[in-house]
Write a structure and sequence with these properties.
- The chain is an alpha/beta fold.
- The protein has eight helices and five strands; from the N terminus they run H-E-H-E-H-E-H-E-H-H-E-H-H.
- The protein has a single domain, classed as HUPs (Rossmann fold, 3-Layer(aba) Sandwich), CATH 3.40.50.
- Helix 2 packs across helix 7.
- The relative contact order is 0.22.
Length: 239
């Protein structure tokens, strides 16, 4: 699940205009009308997506944020493919979840093996997002897509510098005009869950646990984060 905050996030902001975090809205405050409608001055995609973009590639991990990002993108673009990068040590259940989410969405899944990306015990893999988004930009260009959509949310950036909107702005400038769209840049994990439920995302298909098994372990940091996020959302985890 993700972590982010940045007043000038890249093409980020309110993904639908209707999700409210427990305690008073996204980030603990009510959203302005401009934020709700997506017509503010910071190029957030709003309800109809980024102007001029018709096709998109979505980064899909098998977790909640990327599954909701896929549903969000399908409402705004023609999704030419979902891209799954298989890093070293990835749980098999996460890969299966990724395939299940893509199949349910009716979207082509492209798998790319990246065994050289080895997460440290902290969860950080050096240059991970640089590599993943470079691959995504390449796939998007090859498929004629004008955007890459990713589910990074504001929780991510508080832990990882390469998950901050400013980082993706710099990366975007190196490409050939393909946009990197972060619809949940101001959202917490709980906000994304609420939006996912509203969009009818099959959250029961997603996998967050760092371990393989018939059921999530309930003890690793990813499981604890998922449990807490559902608690804050006021919804029951269907998995």
């Amino acid at each position: 699940m993700a972590r982010a905050r940045d007043a000038a996030e890249l093409h980020g902001g309110d993904p639908g205009g209707a999700v409210r975090q427990a305690g008073g809205g996204c980030g603990g405050r009510a959203l302005s009308r401009a934020e709700r409608l997506g017509d503010g001055t910071d190029r957030r995609p709003g309800r109809r997506g980024v102007a001029g973009v018709r096709k998109a590639v979505v980064l899909l991990s098998g977790g909640i944020d990327s599954a909701v990002a896929l549903a969000w993108a399908k409402e705004r673009y023609t999704v030419t493919a979902a891209l799954s990068c298989e890093v070293s040590g990835r749980p098999r259940r996460e890969a299966k979840a990724c395939a299940a989410v893509a199949k349910r969405a009716g979207v082509r899944l492209i798998r790319v093996k990246t065994p050289f990306l080895r997460p440290r015990p902290s969860g950080y893999a050096p240059a991970r997002n640089l590599v993943l988004h470079a691959i995504a930009l390449s796939v998007a260009e090859d498929l004629g897509a004008g955007a890459v959509v990713a589910g990074h949310n504001r929780s991510d950036a508080s832990f990882f510098e390469d998950a901050r909107p400013a980082y993706f702005r710099r990366l975007e400038r190196l490409g050939r005009g393909i946009r990197i769209v972060l619809p949940f840049a101001r959202y917490t994990d709980a906000d994304v869950i609420v939006l996912g439920a509203r969009l009818g995302v099959p959250l029961e298909l997603t996998w967050s646990c760092y371990r393989d098994g018939r059921r999530p372990c309930g003890r690793c940091s990813a499981c604890r984060g998922r449990i807490e996020s559902f608690r804050l959302s006021g919804l029951e985890d269907p998995s």
